[in-house]
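--- STAGE predict ---
source: upstream dedup step, 1 unique chain passed
mode: sequence only
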Amino acid sequence: MRLICISRDRMKFFVSNLKVKCMKAVVLTGLQKIELRDVPDPERKSGTDVLLKMAAVGVCGSDIHYYTKGRIGDQIVQYPFIVGHEGSAIVKEVGNRVTRVKPGDPVVFDPLVVCGQCFQCLNGRRHTCLHARFLGCPGQREGCLSEYIVMPEECCYPIPSEVSLTEAVLVEPMSIGIHSVKFLNNPTSRDIGVLGVGPIGLSVSSGAQRAGVKSSFVTDKIEDRLNVAKKLGADWTGNPDRSDIVKEILEEVPDGLDAVFECCGDQDALDQAVHLLKPGGSLFIVGIPEDNRISFDISRMRRKEIVIQNVRRQNECIQAAIDLFQSGRINTDALLTHRFPFKEAGAAFELVANYRDGVVKAVIEIG
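--- STAGE serialize ---
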């Protein structure tokens, strides 16, 4: 038998190189269970990859679906899993083919990584890429509630000094609002409704105001959110738990609304939308229902010839949202209602899941 002797220093070298470098991440470990764990550092694998040091992450309604239900439709969480997709960061390292950003740059990122080659991508519909990989989406990519992530260069957008890293987490939800309002033809002659004004609904409502809609009617079950909607320019607000919002809105606009943006994924709101729309009106489904199926009064919809348009996230609207925040035309103080340190991420999820304390947007600050 042959013996091989290795010095103590040499052995330390081998052992240290066998260790996996770790970072902290917020991990879902079960229904309504969150832990701060050590997980392996992400690695750049391409010359166009960018290593990002996370600064802040917003808690989105889809994150809450995974937290409370463990799924959205057929997207089922396999534990443990890292959620989060609304984020801001500082560029840490870049690949040798990256030209768009450099180390030290503050950025936001489009959480959707696309193939760029399928017929959807090639026809200007990157948001419905057939091979999409979305941050914090089961079966696609782990989320960004961690100290570091790696993203392709094309997903990274530098942010100007006028926009703080905390404010920047609002860019992604605002981009959805901008994308949603683009479906509205001739907005200045339109009476619209926005049902459900969480962060997405408020983004839609404020986007509609900037587009110059004729009038806007906003509803929500949380009074604090209705107050924020008023600050952002809504013409009328109502709480469906406190009054007959359909009757009251139709008293203001007897012919009905031209368009309704359903932003809460609630069956009652969908039913209200059908009643509120005038014949030939358009229903835009922006919210994500918790259940796999929803229903409609098809007789009423058929007689009114209602048009239904599903809205899938956003498409090439990140830069427009950044420009909007840079202009100072968004009241970020009204939207950013709660901030939590990284180690208290569980408290942030519990707050948002239970709609406590007038929460609009809760942000988890990592950096």
